[in-house]
Specification:
The protein is α/β, with parallel strands linked by helices. Helices cover 17% and strands 26% of the residues. It has a single domain, classed as Hexapeptide repeat proteins (UDP N-Acetylglucosamine Acyltransferase, domain 1, 3 Solenoid), CATH 2.160.10. The strands form 4 sheets. Strands 2-5-8-11-14-19-22-24-25 form a 9-stranded mixed beta sheet. A 7-stranded parallel beta sheet has the order 1-4-7-10-13-18-21, with no helix packed on it. A 7-stranded parallel beta sheet has the order 3-6-9-12-15-20-23, with no helix packed on it. Bound molecules: coenzyme A (COA). The site of coenzyme A has 13 residues, from strand 24 and strand 25.
Length: 252
């Protein structure tokens, strides 16, 4: 029983006192809706996570290992977002938005030295994204992801058919997405992949190998079909929208 409790607490926070402290702050202030709740958390959550400037955290955001979470200024965490920094750390750069029900989980139950999740500035993480950070996941600046994108920086070893896969260990090399990449809806990026700066990945692709900068890649497995640098002025659509809200955001 005691061992079970220890196992549980170790999975949630950096020690028992820290667990009590973080749960107290989250329990007192995590549920408060409206902009009032956002304001209160911007002040009170400084006691349990690292905040550079002011971050906007909606009600119902779940945080574990708060001591290992760093948010840059003007980070936005939407309702239902789940950050679990066990214990290698999650860092999110300034002006980055993480949308509804995305889950960033370092998942480092096996003590990997290079685990962790780092997201640069001015990124947008779409709804229901999943990050599994055992091998380390690094996103540069200006990375945009559509809904249901997955970064899975881990593989199970399965070479012995006579032993359950769960007992054969894992490998985890890590994933790197360089600056200014757009990943369409439902993209999956598997372990060991680097996506070069300026790339566009079409909806539903599974990225299994490195992509050089400015690739346009689609399909399963993702294949490079174009180089963005070879696009012509005629390839730019005429019906482009920016909108007032986007302009407002740029001026914040
Ligand atoms: C990849 C994408 C950006 C289009 O890029 P593009 O350079 O204009 O590509 P094209 O439309 O000229 O298509 C080129 C080829 O790729 C194919 N293709 C395009 N998107 C594809 C996709 N997601 N999966 C598989 N094939 C795709 C096209 O059918 C075409 O094939 P063909 O040459 O055999 O006819 C777009 O199709 C896409 O997937 N957008 C993502 C939308 C999204 O997820 N939005 C969420 C908002 S964050």
């Amino acid at each position: 029983m005691l061992n079970q409790l220890r196992y549980y607490i170790t999975g949630q926070a950096a020690g028992f006192p820290r667990y009590i402290w973080e749960q107290l702050i989250f329990g007192l202030f995590g549920w408060i809706p409206t902009v009032l709740g956002v304001g209160i958390r911007a002040v009170m959550y400084r006691l349990v996570i690292k905040m550079k400037g002011t971050a906007a955290i909606e009600y119902g955001v779940r945080l574990a290992y708060g001591s290992h979470i760093t948010l840059g200024k003007r980070v936005y965490l939407d309702h239902g977002v789940y950050l679990h920094a066990l214990p290698a750390g999650i860092a999110i750069g300034e002006n980055t938005m993480v949308m509804h029900h995305s889950m960033l989980h370092v998942f480092n139950f096996r003590g990997l030295p290079h685990a962790g999740i780092t997201i640069g500035k001015n990124c947008f993480i779409g709804e229901f994204n999943v990050f599994r950070g055992q091998g380390g996941i690094t996103l540069g600046d200006d990375v945009y992801t559509g809904p249901q994108v997955q970064f899975v920086a881990v593989n199970h070893v399965f070479s012995n058919p006579n032993t359950p896969i769960r007992e054969q260990g894992i490998t985890a090399k890590g994933i790197v997405v360089e600056d200014d990449v757009w990943l369409g809806a439902g993209v999956t990026v598997v372990d060991g992949v680097t996506i070069g700066r300026g790339s566009v990945i079409g909806a539903g692709a599974v990225v299994t190998g490195d992509l050089p900068p400015y690739s346009i890649a689609v399909g399963v497995p993702a294949k490079r079909i174009k180089d963005r640098r070879e696009m012509k002025p005629g390839d730019t659509p005429s019906d482009i929208f920016f909108g007032e809200l986007e302009q407002l955001r740029r001026n914040i």
